[in-house]
Amino acid sequence: MTTIDRSAPVLVTGATGYVAGWLVKRLLDEGLTVHAAVRDPGASDKLQYLNQLAEDAPGTIRYFKADLLEEGSYAEAMQGCELVYHTASPFTLDVKDPQKDLVDPALQGTRNVLEEANRVDSVKRVIVTSSVVAIFGDNSDLQSLPGGILTESVWNTSSSVNHQPYAYSKTVAEKEAWRIAEGQDRWDLVTINPALVIGPGINPRATSESFNIVKQMGDGSTKPGAPRFGLGVVDVRDVAEAHFQAGFTPEASGRYIVSGHNTDLVELASTLLEKYGDRYPIPRKALPKWLVWLVGPLVTKGTSRRMISRNVDLPWKADNSKGVRELGLSYRSMKESMEEMFQQMIDSGQLRKG
């Protein structure tokens, strides 16, 4: 059991990120001091949203320059912190060099942050933002599991640099985190493994693949229909809450699947029909798998026929009960998350006003 002193500062790496923004808000609202590790503390345009949060909250934010790939980069930011949140990791599916653009930053970044925790005596707990893709690679993997359901005990064994490289990057990074954690006994490690994160960003132009997926539902890209690509989804604010509770719940331990809903792309799009269906080309039907297999790789970057074969028309199911039971988590409806995210895209000019 680990108890965190709330008067000590809390480090958040990748503080300008999608999930991190809401986590920073939660910490500031609790009156905590946040050490925000960012690439450029002088980039006022990128920090404006965090500054706004700090102005409206009892907590305090301090910025520290840090680079994921630079050893020792987090030393100053981590001083005096008992709790460290490592959220920084790239999430994109369209990359030229998966090893260089995804795997190396995820692995090296995790190593740099956790090895720094080994050197900073104040650290008691590290929370790493992992992903459900460190648990599975393709929906076809679920067919070999009891009941076809993902649990925290499962690891992704089907991804590689050449197939589902993003999933591979999260898997090797989380495994490295556990390897480093098990090599010492001063601080404990907890990982948060979210499904696809949806919902509005603190920054309306957050750089996350989630925004590309939802944008395509309103810009005409998927007007003919969407594949029944099974996946889990979770609201970004619920993911931030999971991080907060994992940090401050003394008994928290191990991995936590954080997913609100077992769904697919067609069902996800359908949550937008009631409010936006008459003004935007929201996909209404499922595309047949053979058609997705035929044209998918031609129209969507980062999509392969192997990926389509192993995921489309296959269900996705995960057991989220550990987080509900141990961290007291509850989940917003998909409709609420999707409508608020879609409206934010309209208001910020990313989708034309309908």
From TrEMBL:
It comes from the Bacteria. The lineage of its organism: Bacteria, Pseudomonadati, Pseudomonadota, Gammaproteobacteria, Pseudomonadales. Belongs to the NAD(P)-dependent epimerase/dehydratase family. Dihydroflavonol-4-reductase subfamily. This is NAD-dependent epimerase/dehydratase family protein. Keywords: Oxidoreductase. Residues 10-247 form the NAD-dependent epimerase/dehydratase domain.
